[in-house]
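--- STAGE predict ---
source: upstream dedup step, 1 unique chain passed
mode: sequence only
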Amino acid sequence: MTIDGRLTRREALAAGTAVVGVLAGGRARAQTRSRVALVGTGVRGTSLWGRNLVENYGDAVEIVGLCDTNPGRLQYGSSYIGAGCPTYGNFDQMLAEARPDKVIVTTVDATHHEQIVAALEAGSEAITEKPLTTDAAKCQAILDAIDRTGGRVTVTHNYRYSPHRRRIKELLMERRIGRLTSIDFHWYLDIHHGAAYFRRWHGKERYSGGLYVHKASHHFDLLNWWIESDPEVVYGQAGLEHYGANGPYRSDKCRGCPHAERCDFHWDITSSQRMVDLYVANEHHDGYIRDGCVYSEEIDIFDKMAAQIRYVNGAQVTYSCTSYSPYEGYRIAFNGTEGRLEAWIQERQPWPRESYDELRVTDNFGETELIRIPHRSGGHGGGDVLMLDHIFRDSQGTDPFKQRADVRQGAMAVLTGFAARRSARSGQPVRIADLTSLVPKEQWV
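--- STAGE serialize ---
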């Protein structure tokens, strides 16, 4: 469907074909494997969307092309993935020759719109890593391409799939705490994970859109999904006060750094052969340094962020994110007319971790219930596997918890980040409706 819910010509033709198959006595051709092409052979592209698909989704997926602008990384990625398919340095050539049904986009965030639009124009479905894109103009270009082509874009917001977040969704859908009125949401990136964003390309806003977009789009998507309404007005405050030029010393990279002995953030990339083969061995092709200095003066993204968000349905959110915490995880509390649902989710910390996540539900004038959800193995709390099953094995199946993220929802996640980023710089609240042609809705449909 188009973004406003109209049936596209492509969907109408597909529906007609299905009816013909039924009328012909079920003689329609059995479904074949999806022809999938991948653009962007970095860590996540080659692992989750590359080797993992070859090893675990071979019954549903055939990788027919790999593309990257770095020829060395492309060669290594091809070997690591093991698909035995053609490789391309030119994306348009791959689309023309490989003719994929689906294109997986795992490139630098600022270029997502280029590959998504080109894939749609070529008649392919696009599956993109979050964030959808990095600014409002690029977001509008994607929305226009969907309206123009009738194509489909899936945004891989895997956080929706982890068991404890799905349990939160279930409790909210059941109105366990009554009508949801406000949320307190505070995310902590630790000094390992948080710092990693500042030594990579993510530390430059022109590539990543900043953490309001690259990282917080995860968080804003969760909020939108839990609340089931669109954000309307955003007020942000942020700063860069720990990384970048704030550091006491700096170098161009960790390798060979004269301050290695006294820098708490020194990272030895050579301790990982995969990182050496993927990045160090190929940096001469494009100059990309994977172990950059977290104190580089080129860093221009915020390292602490906050936002006040008002939703069309009246719910309001207080949000913050810190990128230099001693532990990793988040605290969240949902306030409703009949009670409160809260959790402290610990993802990495210097003390023993329990084997479960715990939710606390307290009724107004009533009792407190503790709900324990066992951890699942796999990336992002087991969410990655569940998401891939949804995309490649059950794309037309039921979705009772609304975990599939379409392009409108992917757009609303990044638009929240764009608004917060603009507000933090201007000091003024920003209306979501002023950013693109999307009009915020009171309720999801």
